[in-house]
Amino acid sequence: MTGRPTLTQRRRESTRLEIARAAAELFAARGAEATTAEEIANASGISLRTFYRYFSEKEDAVAPLLAAGGERWVRLFTESASDLPVREALERSAAESLSPFDAQADEAMHWTRELLRDPRLASVWQRVHADSEERLRAAIADRCPPGTDALEIRLAAAATAAIRVALEQWASSGAPATGPGSPRELGARCMRELTAGLGLWEHVG
User: Buried b / exposed e across 99-135, counting CB within 10 Å, b at 16+?
Assistant: First the structure.
């Protein structure tokens, strides 16, 4: 999709986010296993039929919250200066995406921690991570010159694993959202250690 989203698209995304917040609150309070789709629908002010128009399973309802950080990372990377080396652009955008910058970002970080502690949501988290990696791969490919090794691009996109590990480590700890032990600090460390030997950096910066 290009250009400004239509009114219908914006309303749909707003509804998806409202459902996600309601689901996150219920999951945090009683766990995903003990929460029903009907309860999520009721908390969202919609019918169960409408709920299933947006999500096929109750666990999927929190995907928009879990995906927010990855979506922001890809957007920041795509919008970064074209003369910035790919490695630097990737690291800067990752660090910024892991830094709560407003109330909505702080909320997303809070729910990420709560939701990652529920084993029933592990499959949703893995799908969100896979989608984020594919979007990042496409963004990196667009930034690389023609003929760049496709495998090196895929390995660079696997940097999303560094962020996944950082967030999982943070979620299992008592560290704050900023400062020592935060997602930003852990993410920077994980990216340095997991991507240090990539051949792509030698060719496109």
Answer: ebeeeebeebbebbbbbbebeebeebbeebbeebbeb
